[in-house]
Design goal:
The protein has seven helices and ten strands. About 35% of the residues lie in helices and about 25% in strands. Strand 4 and strand 5 form a beta hairpin. The chain starts with a strand and ends with a helix. It is an alpha/beta fold and about 250 residues long. Strands 6-7-8-3-9-10 form a six-stranded mixed beta sheet, with helices on both faces.
Amino acid sequence: MSVVRLEGVGKSFLRRDGEQLEVLRNINLEVSERSIVALVGASGCGKSTLLNIIAGLAEPDQGAVYLNDMRSSAFKDWRSMTYMFQEDRLFPWRTTAQNVAFGLEAAGVARGERRERVMKVLELVGLDTFADSFPHELSGGMRSRAALARSLVTEPTILLMDEPFSKLDPSIRASMHDEVLRIAALKQMAVIFVTHDVEEAVVLANKIVVLHPRPGRVRETREVALPYPRNPLSPEVAEEVRLLRLSL
């Protein structure tokens, strides 16, 4: 079963000069359960716009979006989808646990259950001993883990990520890749993420969607059949990276 399906999706924005800027054209995409899909392409090809459309943050001008085989306009279970942004967006006045609990508070989850779920997910990402720390007391990698925990505490089946690790050092980014793969397998989530990093796409994804710009359209969809975990220094991964770069 597909958890996300896009059929003929198009999107335009009105520019200041009154002209229409076509950002996406005729996007067809299917994301299966428990799959990891990367959206790659040059700046301006509409990757983030496409992710926003999937998340329900933007409406397509043409085409249809289906979530769990239901039209997005009729979809009710938005809590089953969560969005991890490029910036960690942690509230500086809240502790790690309080930041992670924010979505549960908004959903009206009782305090006792909130605490239990927050501590469980903080343990999952290795931050349980930093539950009472404030964001300024955390390293960049720890802040990313806190943001990931906040995305996971609502127990989603679909995780959307818009370049969440782009500002991390390579070693920390590799650690976050391992975390995403481990947790996605454990929780049986589907993951859709935007990246400019070709190597990141190959290391994480089992399907890579290559977009070309102006307007954004699917040039190629590549299946990556390499077993996990994938060593970025291995000849097999290096060859996949080389072939993907040729498609960009």
